[in-house]
Amino acid sequence: MIVMEAGRASILLPPSAGEHVEALTDSWLTTLPASALQALLAIPPVAATLFRALGAALRQRQDAASYLASVHHVDRVRQKLAQLAREFGRVQPDGIRIGFPLTHDLLAEMVASARETVTRSLDELHRGGFVARDGHSYRLLISPDALDAPG
Q1: How far apart are the C-alpha atoms of 123 and 125, rounded to whole Å?
Q2: Each residue's pLDDT tens digit, 115-124
Q3: Burial class, 121, CB count within 10 angstroms (exposed 0-12 / middle 13-18 / buried 19+)
Q4: High-pLDDT (> 90) share of the chain, %
Q5: What does the pLDDT average to over 124-128?
Q6: Dist CA 121 CA 116 (whole Å)
Q7: DSSP SS3 for 69
Q8: Which helix (DSSP H) or strand (DSSP E) does residue 76 occupy?
Q9: What is the Cα–Cα distance from 78 to 54, expressed in whole angstroms?
Q10: Is 89 exposed, middle or buried (0-12, 13-18, 19+ CB in 10 A)?
Q11: Which tops the pLDDT comparison, 50 or 2?
C-alpha cells in the first residue's frame, strides 16, 4: 500500500523496515544526516519552513485517512484523485491534469482497493463527468475552485 506521495520541496521521513521509496518520474532526493538537520533547525526561518512542510505532510496523511474510511470505493477514488490534483495538478483550459503516470494498479495501492474495483470506479467517475483519461495520466473535469477544500 502506498502511504505517502511527495512532490517538489516535500519532506519525507526515512523509510522504516519494510518500506521503500519509489519515484514515478525523474526525481531528485536529498538526504540529511541528523547533525545537518539540527544545524538547520537552529536557523529560525529554516525551522519555520520545515515546520510548514511537515504540517503539509501531516495534512496529506490526515486526508488519506479520511477517505480510506469510506466503504464506497468510488468515493475513495474520487477523493484520492482530488487530493492528487491539489498536490500535483496543473490547471488547463479543459480541467486539472494530474501530471504523472497513474495506472489502475498504482491508484488501487493508493486507495487500498483491488485494481478491478478501481477500474469500475474510474468508469463510473468518467460516465459522471468527473474524470477523463489523458494518455498515462488523468484530467479532472472540474473547476480548480472545487479543489479548495479537502474531501
Answers
A1: 5
A2: 999 999 999 9
A3: buried
A4: 36
A5: 96
A6: 9
A7: coil
A8: helix 73-88
A9: 25
A10: buried
A11: 50
Measure the CA–CA gap between 13 and 113, rounded to whole angstroms.
Answer: 25
Confidence of residue 78 (pLDDT cuts 50, 70, 90): very high
CA 71 to chain CA centroid, Å, is 20
CA distance 83 to 35: 34
CA distances from 44 to 30, 49, 51, 145 (A): 21, 9, 10, 34
Identity (one letter) of the amino acid at 8?
R
> Cell digits for 111?
486507495
Burial of 82 (0-12, 13-18, 19+ CB in 10 A): buried
**Neighbour-count burial for 21-44, b at 16+ CB within 10 Å, e otherwise:** eeeeeeeeeeeeeeeeeeeeeeee
CB-based contacts of 81, cutoff 8 Å, min separation 6: 98, 107, 125, 130, 131, 138, 140
pLDDT score of 149 more than 70:
no
> What average pLDDT does range 24-49 have in this prediction?
88
